[in-house]
Known about the structure:
The structure holds two protein chains of two kinds.
Chain A: E1 2-11, E2 14-24, E3 29-33, H1 40-48, E4 53-59, E5 62-63, H2 69-75, E6 77-80, H3 92-99, H4 105-114, H5 132-146, E7 150-154, H6 162-177, E8 181-185, H7 189-192, E9 197-202, E10 205-210, H8 212-221
Parallel strand pairs in A: 3-8, 3-9, 6-7, 7-8
Antiparallel strand pairs in A: 1-2, 1-4, 4-5, 9-10
Helix pairs in contact in A: 3-5, 4-5, 5-6
Chain B: H1 3-18, H2 24-27, E1 33-37, E2 40-45, E3 50-57, E4 60-67, E5 77-82, E6 87-98, E7 103-112, E8 117-128, E9 133-142, E10 147-158, E11 163-172, E12 177-186, E13 191-200, E14 205-214, E15 220-229, E16 234-243, E17 249-258, E18 263-272, E19 278-286, H3 290-297, H4 303-314
Parallel strand pairs in B: 1-5, 4-6, 5-7, 6-8, 7-9, 8-10, 9-11, 10-12, 11-13, 12-14, 13-15, 14-16, 15-17, 16-18, 17-19
Antiparallel strand pairs in B: 1-2, 3-4
Helix pairs in contact in B: 3-4
Amino acid sequence: MLSLRDFTVIRGGSKIVRDVNLDFEEGKIQIILGSNGSGKSTLAQGIMGIFPTDGHIFMDGEDISSLKVDERARRGITLAFQEPARFEGITVKDYLLISSREKKLGEVEDALRMVGLPRTMLFQEMDDSLSGGERKRIELASVLLMKPRFAILDEPDSGIDIISFKRIASAIKEMRNRGTGVILITHAEEMISLGDVASILCNGRVVVTGKPADVRRLFTKTPCPIREVR
Amino acid sequence: MDEMYSREYEALVKYFENSGGDPRALRSSEYASMVINHNRVLHVSEVDGIQMRFERMENGVEVWITVNENVVVKNPVHLCFGMLPRSGRQIIRSHINVGDGSRVKFLSHCIFPKAVDIEHVMDSDVTIGMGASMEYEEVHIHGKSGRIRVVPKAIVNVGPGGYYSSTFVVKTGRAGNVDIDYSLFLSDNSSASLFSKIYGRYNDKIRVKESMYLKGRKSRGIIKTRMVLRDRSSSEVIGEVVGIGDDSRGHVDCMEVILDDATARASPIVYARNPKAKVTHEAAIGSVDKKQLLTLMSRGLSEEESIDVIVGGLLR
C-alpha cells in the first residue's frame, strides 16, 4: 500500500498540490482526473520524489518522504513522464535493458511486443527519429520490464493515434494483472473505464474520490468544483 | 622484422586488441594496414588498388597512401600510430589520395598507453577524387595519467560528387591537450561530415577548430561536436561553415555537457557569401539534461550511474 497523508508538493516556491490524502493499492488502477494546471503532473512528480514535499508518503507503513528518486525507484515506485525524454546515442534495446530485471533480450522483446512495437525498433536510437506515440509506448515497455509495485503514468494516452491507444490500454491492464498498482493520469474516457477508483484534482486538492463512472460524470459536468487562489 | 621491431609491433597489437580492436585486421593480408611506433614503421600491408609509401623522419614518419581510380576497398584500411615510450614527440605527415570513383574506409588507432609527456602531431592533406568516397575514423587510446598533447591538422579537398567523413574520438584515458584544426573544401555536388567525440577530465584542454568551405554548387556539409567535460577540464569549439556555391547547405551542431568545475566555450560561425546558400547552426552547453537524469533515476539507477549512461550515449 502506498499512502499519501496531508501530502503537499512545492514547486517554484509555491504549494501546487495541497493536503492530499490518498491510498494506492497494488493490483488496482487509480485514475487521477483534473483540468490543465490542476497539479496532476506535480502530484505525480511529488510522489516520485522530484519536488520538495510536506506531509507524508508511506509505503507499507514506512515513511519514505526523505528518500531520493532512485531510492524510491529501488523500493518499487516508478514514473513515466507525460513527455518522455529523448536520449542521443542510446538504442531502444539499451534503454529497455536498464529497466529489465533479468537483463535478457527475450524479456525486452516481449515487452516491446506487448506495447505493439516491432522487434526492429530495438536498434533504433531513442532520439527524434521516434514519434511521440512510439516514445510513449517504449516508456510503458520500460515500466513493464521494471515490474514495479507502483507505476505512475502521466497521460500515457495524450497525443497518440487510436492503434497506439489500444496497445497502451492493454499494457496498463497487463500491469494491473501482474499486481502493479497503477496511478493513471488521464483525460480519455476509455482509460477512465479501466480504473478501479478515480479522483478529481482541482486547484491542487483532491475534491472527490469514488467509482470511475461516477467521478467521470461529475468531472464532465463540473471539472473543478472549488475555486481557490494559491 | 628484427627482434626490437617485432616486440614493439606485438605490444601495439596487444594494446589495440585490449581496447576492443580486432587484431586480425593488423595481421591479415586481406586488410591494408600500417603500424608505426614513434618514427619506426613496424608493419605495412597493401591490398589490390592501394599503395603505401613512407619515409622516416627524425621524430616521425611521412606517409603517402594512394587509392587507385574506381577501386572499392572491401575491408577498412587500418592505421595504427603509437608511442610506446613514456615521452617524446611523434609527427605523422600523411598524404592521402583517393582516385576518381573509389571507395575506402580508414580506421586509425592512435595508441599512447604509457604517456608521461608526449606530443602527437598528425599533419594531413587529403584529396578525394571525382565521385570518390572516403570515411576516416580516428580513435585515440590514451593512458589514465600523464601529459599528452594531440595536434591533428588536416586539409581536405573533396572533388565533384565526392564524399568525405571524419570521426575523431577520445573517450578512454586522459584526452590531454587536444588541438584539432581541420579545413575542408567542397566541390560541386560533394558532401562531407566532421564529427568529434571527446571526453575531457582533470585539467584537459580541448580546442576544436573545424572549417568547411562549401565552394561547389549543391555542396553539403555538417560539423558535429559532442563533448563531455568533467573536473577542471575546458574546451573551445569553433565550427565554421561558409556557404559559397549556389544551393550549398551547411550546418554546425555542437553539444557539450559540463560537470563539476569544467568550462566550455562554443562559437559556431555561419557565413554565407551567396544568397542561394543556406548555413545554419545549433549549440547547447550545460549540465546533464534533467529529464533524462530523472527518467533513469526513476528506473532505479543512481545519479552517477544515470550520468554515465547519458554521457556514454552522447559520445557513442
